Amino acid sequence: MIKILVVSDIHFPDRRDTIPNLSEYINDIDLIFALGDFTTFEVLNYLKGFGTPVSAVHGNMDEQLLKRNLPETHTVKIDGVKIGLFHGNGGPSGIEKRVRSKFKNELDAYLFGHSHRAMNKIINGSLFFNPGALCGNNKTIGILYIDFSNVWGKIIKFDG
């Protein structure tokens, strides 16, 4: 089984005083998906510092250096599962359709952030997964699992 840590909307230092300590979630993680609004390159470097492969996209609030170095969308295929990464845009209403429209082909899972609202649901046979945000009062992260061409997610409350 493949286990992926999914994070979004860290917003350091504009909405957090410190980078969240994610070390307790890294031990058995195969990959990290980071869905933008790190705000600074320092956060991306922190995630890469674990030595676990990181796939990342930029968010609307990221500094220009991040926007120049990270794509807006990214698609990966893992164990036959097609996954799209996108930060998101607009208000929370209808975000699933906007996320889906960013990708040419039908995918098995669409991962996004932006709304700061966790989501873990199947729509028309595809997983729409938002890990929530690591800033604000209701901090959450996500874990994505892939096993035998199946994909599912779990939202975890974060106390850091």
pLDDT averaged residue by residue: 96
Task: List how many beta strands DSSP finds.
Answer: 10
The number of distinct structural domains comes to 1
Low-confidence parts: none
Distance between the termini: 27 Å
Task: Output the radius of gyration.
Answer: 14 Å
β-strand amount: 25-35%
**For this structure, what is the CATH class?**
Alpha Beta
- CATH architecture name: 4-Layer Sandwich
Short note summarizing the structure:
The protein is mainly beta. The protein has helices at 41-48, 64-69, 95-101, and strands spanning 2-7, 31-34, 54-56, 73-78, 81-86, 109-111, 119-123, 126-130, 140-147, 150-157.
Q: Can you offer a commentary on this structure?
A:
This protein is mostly beta strands. It has a single domain (about 1-155), classed as Metallo-dependent phosphatases (Purple Acid Phosphatase, chain A, domain 2), CATH 3.60.21. The protein is built from 3 helices and 10 strands, in the order E-E-H-E-H-E-E-H-E-E-E-E-E. It has helices at about 40-50, 65-70, 95-100; strands spanning about 1-5, 30-35, 55, 75-80, 80-85, 110, 120-125, 125-130, 140-145, 150-155. The chain starts with a strand and ends with a strand. The mean pLDDT is about 95.
